[in-house]
Specification:
single chain; 2 domains
Length: about 300
């Protein structure tokens, strides 16, 4: 027997031994299942969207920012052990810009992205789900709420009772639009409504673009008024693809990724929350909010939410 044949036999034998070792490990040492998934690429990346969507997270409890979620999606997409990404959504929506940052990351992902709506996936959170490849929701979940809202405080009456008065110095007629210490004029309200109208049209157009022929356009036009829908109602209109549990969503993700056998979840949403960070960030955001309210009286579309 020549050297080439001997070498070939040895290589085949080595690979057979490695395969046998993997099978035996899975059968007799269940703790090695995650390692096998890493080897085979049988992981489903788990990314959680479980709070109001904002570019800066939350002041008073450990909530991720939109930038954190974008980073998790991008890391999962680059991870060679991951074959698909599961977005686990439980959010009422939030900032327009923050929601669109996550939508962009979902659209740019090269791997299948599946959304599962648990309790709530409304407004901006629904827009994120709509941008994914497949949407599954619990039948009792709440979704939809396709609309735009902005709540602007007016402290004018309170300031009068307290005997306080603020002088606003400005250059530009509309520079203090949204000033919380006076009522908006009819002209200013119209300007703001027009801006919100543009955002609302874009929101609806994106949903139609993402859902394409899955959507019942006539019924969608009727319900795109801010109302909530149950998972079952959303399915009837074509806002989602199927009703199901978290387990079924994982199975669907594995199917779309072409994973053979049982898939393992790899959580990309682990929090590095520390108590010290809570107090330092809370102090920062409170001070910034106070300063903004007193000194920066011009209106920003950051106040507008798809929620």
């Amino acid at each position: 027997m020549d050297n080439k044949k001997i070498f070939l036999i040895i290589v085949v034998a080595v690979f057979m031994l490695i395969g046998l070792a993997v099978i035996l490990s899975a059968l007799f040492f269940p703790g090695t299942a995650d390692s096998i998934s890493l080897f085979l690429g049988n992981n489903i990346a788990l990314v959680k969207i479980d709070s109001e969507i904002s570019n800066y997270g939350s002041t008073f409890f450990p909530a991720k920012s939109a930038f954190d979620i974008v980073s998790e999606i991008e890391k999962a997409d680059k991870d060679s052990s991951v074959s698909a990404i599961l977005l686990e959504i439980n959010s009422p929506g939030g900032s327009v810009v923050a929601s669109k940052q996550i939508v962009e990351a979902v659209q740019n992902a090269k791997k299948p992205v599946i959304s599962w709506i648990s309790d709530e996936g409304a407004s901006g959170a629904y827009l994120i789900a709509a941008s994914s490849d497949y949407i599954m929701a619990d039948s009792s979940s709440l979704t939809g709420s396709i609309g735009v809202i902005s709540i602007l405080p007016n402290y004018e009456g309170l300031m009068e009772k307290l005997g306080l008065k603020f002088e606003v110095l400005k250059q530009g007629k509309y520079k203090d639009i949204g000033n919380p210490f006076r009522e908006m004029t009819a002209e200013e309200k119209k300007m703001f409504y027009d801006a919100m109208g543009d955002i609302f049209v874009e929101f609806k157009d994106l949903v139609k673009e993402f859902r394409k022929d899955k959507l019942n356009l006539k019924e969608f036009t009727e319900i795109a008024d801010g109302r909530f829908l149950t998972g079952k109602q959303a399915l009837d209109i074509g806002l989602i693809d199927a009703l199901g549990s978290r387990k079924e969503a994982i199975e669907k993700a594995a199917d779309l990724a072409g994973i053979k056998g049982e898939a393992a979840l790899k959580d990309f949403s682990e929090s590095d929350f520390k108590l010290g960070n809570l107090f330092s960030e809370a102090g920062y955001f409170i001070s910034q909010g106070f300063i903004s309210g007193l000194n920066k009286s011009n209106l920003s579309l950051q106040n507008v939410k798809i929620q």
